[in-house]
Amino acid sequence: MRFLSLLTAVTAAIRAVGLLLVSALVVVPVAAARQVTRGFRATVGPAMAVGVIAAVGGPGRPAG
User: 0.90 cut: is pTM over it?
Assistant: First the structure.
């Protein structure tokens, strides 16, 4: 029974972290683009560019 509770907690934690990561992928590019643009129409292009660069580039160079 204890193992099932632990497994449920780990599963819920992984889902919560995944939700936070997906939310960050949606919010962060727009927030970055809003720092250099004014208005919605001017923000769309730079936000898409930041999102694509972040998705393709990944977190950066591997450590080590």
Answer: no
